[in-house]
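Give me structure tokens for this 108-residue protein.
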Amino acid sequence: MPTLHSLAEFLLMYFLLAIPALIYAVVKLWEARKDRGKYLRCAHCGHAGKMYTVLKKKDFSTAAWFLLLLGILPGVIFISWGSRRYPCRRCGTVSSHLSSSETLANYR
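Here you go.
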């Protein structure tokens, strides 16, 4: 049977390891708030233009904060996923975008 002492050690280690993850998550959310978008081209529909991360949308950023409050690990996983995803503004496809250098090469 776990003792109160081992539970306290577990919680202490969890929070000590969670502090860097929490700092990472807050920095990513702050960057998403200031996101100016990337010039990308969607491989699905061909739309080219500025695309913003998933975290730029208000409902996703609210979900990220909720997951951080619920537990640090689920929030950090969601934020690391959302900070690299750029949904297309026309068709909504999330994962099949070309990089900006490939996009510029196709227009020359």
